[in-house]
Amino acid sequence: MTRLFAYPRYPRFWSADTVSTFGTYITTVALPTLAVLVLKASDTQVGLLNGARWTPYLLFGLLAGVVADRYRRRPILVAADLVRGSLLAVVAVLAALHMVNIYELAAFVFVFGALSLLYDAAHQSYPPRLVPPGSLTVANARLEQTTALARTTGPFIGGSLVAAIGARFSMAIDAVSYLASGLTLATIRVPEPAPQAQARNLEREVREGLRFVYRDPVMRAYALTLHARFFFASIIGTVFTCSCCAIWAPGPRGRRSAWAWCWPPAGSARCSATGCPSGWDAAAWGA
Predict the structure, then answer these.
(1) In this structure, are residues 175 and 92 in contact, taking their beta carbons and an 8 Å threshold?
(2) pTM of the predicted structure, to 2 decimals
(3) Cβ-count burial of 88 within 10 angstroms (0-12 exposed, 13-18 middle, 19+ buried)?
């Protein structure tokens, strides 16, 4: 820890990542709650909304790494955070004014997902610019510890906020977290040479990336596991949201549906797999 703080750019990067990661779990709870309780979305429409979040990963996942490799990482990270924060702020305002429907919300979420994909691709390759190779393992470990903490406690924070102030204001808070993250990243000054402007073949680079992943036995197993995890987690996420909001009607009693998102044992188990809290047992306990 002390060695990492010897490199002043890394703590700022870590702080920005922590703020945006915890903020993400507010929207994880607030967005589907907004769709069901405010926009009166059907089960199918909630599925469409959840699918819109991850469709960019399916369509553009192979291209994101190539794009991030062709441009400086910091401008990508800053732009992605600032635009995502702006999008969430617009959604929060439109929802408060009752000027958005479920399909427009899905379009917003699709753009948000595309920006998140680009951010993820640039984020993974930026720490080597901030710390020397000897400290890179520790630096990545700290980032992963923050992510694990956000997965287990973020749903509790998000559920508490949704129950206390509502989904729309909770999304506004998440917008602030992304804007704060982007502004913090913008203060980082580190030499980052522009990639060489030589002729490069996009299709060839994509094929090389696929071969690198799927020909290595460890990487292949990890990739296939992730595919299966996201597929089944998306199903669970949709069913869980619809079930919680159907069990408890809106109003003081309906706020319990938000608390169901933050029941710690269930939330911890499912967040580790999906980034979304779980709560079948929360319903049984009347959370």
Answers:
(1) yes
(2) 0.78
(3) buried
